Amino acid sequence: IHRLEKGLCFPSGKELFAEKYIEETVSAYHCATENHLHDTGELEWARSVLKRYFATVSIQNERVVSAYQRYLDIENESDGGSLALTPFEFGSIPKVKESWGEEFISLCESRVSCRWFEEKKVPRSKVEYAVNCATQAASACNRQPFQFLLIENPELKSKIVSLPFGTAGFGTDLPHLMMVVGDLSNFPLERDRHLIYIDSALATSQLLLGFTAQGLASVPINWPDVEVNHRSARELLGLENYHVPIMLVGFGIPLEQAKIPYSEKKGVEALLKTYD
Fold first, then answer.
1. Residues 175, 252: contact at Cβ < 8 Å?
2. Measured distance CA(215)–CA(193) in Å, rounded
């Protein structure tokens, strides 16, 4: 579906594209509508993009005609679905305010790794807000091959937080623990399997900022790439072999007197290299 969107975004427009994979795409859409496991918003997006695609391309191509007929059979109506969730012009995005630049760098500078929290629980709405921030992160082909597993059971939380290195002394005191898990079932080709790490990192970065924006604090916890740790996590959480733990995130309401490592960041001049 995302590949169709990219084709629909070409400035000059195309009379025909995606003929090599449009039948497979419609078949995947059909499966998604049948298994009742997919996110409803995602399905509506797929439906909307398919309708836009078939309204845009020439349907004289045999594969496109075949896929279009199957799409109509799935929808049971020739004009099913809206076009609302399809490519839009950049100019329609609300303009960024000049003040947001200063506010954003302040938000980034306020994000610190805090390991000491109050015993109070964070309202569910605040957790969902942070996860919603994470969902807006860039993702290769919009696969979003990750999940955020919120581990609230005290006994289970204690077992999980003891698996990675570096949590001695504070791990068992974390009021909330989340595991970021990559999903390799999204990638049939070996060349793409590193994308679970890229996409999870992009999303988790926005998750942490989502916590910070609400006055909460968090600490990302490195997860060692050790198979025995992966197996232990899968057994404890009932995960599949294609689920790969990426990192843990502890979060909560920070103690005002909590000590934070200064951790000087490298300057722009050290990290930015220009090729003229």
1. yes
2. 35
Closest CA to 188 of 242, 230, 246, 244: 242
DSSP assignment letter at 120: P
Distance CA 151, CA 128 (A): 14
| Polymer length in residues for the chain | 276
Residue pair 6/142 in contact (Cβ under 8 Å)? The answer is no
Alpha-carbon separation of residue 153 from 16, 149, 180, 221 (angstroms): 53, 12, 17, 19
Task: Give the H or E element holding residue 31.
Answer: helix 22-35
Nearest alpha-carbon partner for 251 in 215, 223, 226, 276 = 215
The hierarchical CATH code for the domain 115-252 is 3.40.109.10
Q: Contact 47/29 with Cβ under 8 angstroms?
A: yes
Summarised one tens digit per residue, pLDDT across range 240-259 is: 999 999 999 999 999 999 99
**For residue 157, what is the enclosing H or E element?**
helix 154-161
Phi, psi of 243, rounded to the nearest 5 degrees: -90, 130
**CATH 3.40.109.10 placement within the chain:** 115-252
- 219: phi then psi, degrees, rounded to nearest 5: -145, 115
State the pTM of this model.
Answer: 0.91
Beta strands in 184-267 (DSSP E): 217-222, 243-252
